[in-house]
Amino acid sequence: MADRYVLAVDQGTTSTRSIVFDRSGRMVSVRQREHRQWFPRPGWVEHDPMEIWANTQRTAAQALRDAASSAGEVVAVGIANQRETTVVWERATGRPITRAIVWQDTRTADLVTRLAARPDAGVVRERSGMDIAGYFAGPRLRWVLDSVPRARERADRGELLFGTMETWLIWNLTGGTDGGVHVTDVTNASRTSLMDVRTCRWDPELLAFFGIPETMLPEIRPSVGVLGTASALGQPIPITGALGDQQAALFGQTCFAPGEAKCTYGTGSFLLQNTGTELVHTRSGSISTVAYQLTGEPVHYALEGSVAVAGALVQWLRDALGLIATAPEVETLARTVEDNGGCYVVPAFSGLLAPHWRGEARGMIAGLTGYVTKGHLARAVLEATGWQTRDVVVAMAADSGLQLPALRVDGGMTTNNLLMQFVADALDTPVVRPMVGETVSLGAAYAAGLAVGLWADVEALRRNWHRSAQWSPVPARAAQLSAEYPTWEKAVRLSIAWGDG
Amino acid sequence: MQSLERAAAILQVVAGSGGTLGVTDIAAAVGLPKTTAHSLLRTLLGVRFVEQDHQGRYALGQGLLRLGAGHLDVNELRSRASNWADALASRSGQAVRLATLDGDRVVVVHHVFRPDDSVQVLDVGTVLPADRTALGRVLVAFAPHRSVRGVVDGGRAEVTAVRTQGWAVEDGHLPGTVGLAAPVRGSTGLVVAALGITGPPEAVLDGARRPRGRLVAMVVESAQSVSRELGWHG
Known about the structure:
The complex is a heterodimer of chains A (501) and B (234). Helices cover 36% and strands 23% of the residues of chain A. Chain A is built from 16 helices and 23 strands. Chain A has a 7-stranded mixed beta sheet with strand order 17-18-16-15-21-22-23. In chain A, strands 3-2-1-5-14-13 form a 6-stranded mixed beta sheet, with helices on both faces. Chain B has 234 residues and is an alpha+beta fold. Chain B folds into 2 domains: 2-60, Arc Repressor Mutant, subunit A (Orthogonal Bundle), CATH 1.10.10; 69-229, GAF domain (Beta-Lactamase, 2-Layer Sandwich), CATH 3.30.450.40. Chain B has 10 helices and 8 strands. In chain B, helix 1 crosses helix 3 and helix 5 (74-92) runs antiparallel to helix 10. Chain B is elongated, with a radius of gyration of 19 Å. Chain A binds chain B through residues 24, 26-27, 325-332, 412, 415-417, 435-437, 466-471, and chain B through 73-76, 78-79, 82-83, 86-87, 89-91, 110-113, 115-117, 120, 122, 124. Chain B: This is Glycerol operon regulatory protein.
């Protein structure tokens, strides 16, 4: 019998990737295409939805063609996407009325400040599970309705559709103006501030608060289950999985039990911990979000801690300071010294996200003396990412009461042995890296394959997960870092105080 | 410019010697007083264009290799090789290591666990015996400077065999294991690393105790993929 494959589409911030996976979770083919970043004003970041749709069709067709030479048949499509990026388009023509507003875009800051000052603003946290913030899609949709000519009256007449990227792609893949299915998955819907995080339905009070007409919203569906049939890929293939990218990484890392957690180390770092089927009320700076939902099963929740600057700090060392030629060389430079020499770097380039949520904070290099060399600075840069992971883990432990058995890691920085050992020591927890680094795409493939029976259950997926490396905490070093942690916390307080100015 | 010409002549003599040379032989070969030759050799040692063995004899040095390859940082190398190393471990079912030469030491710069979830310990930074590992044999066979090649038992015949077939097989550095490795080339074609698998003999070898062809092909192809990643188009 021919092998059966799954196509995963990872619609990311800088590129769209189409990857075909086999039943063992191994890559059969991969195609990638970058799209243009539009920066029309300071703080604004936009993508062209038509370009992204074209790149999706093109990379998917290429990946399917590459895989056709193998003995397998592609039986399902799964989608993972950059979260919170907002698209509004015409139902009748399929044309976006403006470029997509990307998750990094800060144009809604004033709007959010105004909304947060309203006496009824408490409803947002109570229903959506998250404080009102420009980070989420709802305020961006409101901005479009307020700012694009005639958008609100057209939305009220039902002429416009809203979606995050997976919604936009599924609508187009399933026919667009010719019967396109208008759906979102529950993880993406949880990032809008418009969904009741307990019932997983659009909440009338939240819609009223943000001034969003329900007619433009997609139907909320489980992450794992039939969403529609892709008719635009040359052969009809069911679309049976969709997840926001960080939730997809959690799924790809097979973190299915409460307490299991993953951290993706890229430009920023994103730590998600599965908290099971009960929603955790957060007080310590982590966010409660939907992890995934299988059709016919209860929603699984997660705590999330997003850190804005991780690998971006290494890039800064490379591009702004010119201390290294390539990002991996930071480890070489850091290994020229034994320790940080008393130096701490707080990379609050545009404020601090989890667990501090202080937008006014600004970056800081603390502890400079004549003794500090570029080697110490490189150490401090890597340690900043480790310390920030500890900040997030401390907050999550306070909120969930769950112990972290081990931290599963992925992303480009996981080839940095110095950093990974530091994280293990700073958390006093083993850090493990899986064999398949493409956890986002793999998560989308797993979701889609699970829905069509390619894998029997999540336990079958767990058996596909293999460790490629492990960093174990060294007790003496862990104790030493625990003693140093208050110094890092002091540096964070200083960076917040500096921004308060 | 005279000293530059003299230094070039010394490098040519050392390169052409087929082994290591003492300062007396070098001075005689280039027709210089021994003190002058010694002074030039000290400068060449300083920039690592030559190196000295424990008997004080001279061979070509690592500095020349870096001159040809452009300096390749080992952490950069690991980052570029990581996806291919993962894929090799996944397909072969064996542990994968990437090693480079540091002087005449064979150092592990990347290690991917055998994908069976057994307890394994990262050994990045470990120095391997050059003559008793497949990784070492590959690096030594392709080393441009002869002082390093001299460490292998069997000498030139072994070096030629590895160079000709493009891979090496040897008992693993851990008891009861067998290693299989192939060269990774940098953008100029010089060998900058060796990539290989280590596993139990029954997995790596066939009934005739030869490495399984399927695994040889995987290791060689993976090493070539890393070479392409590093910009080699040979």
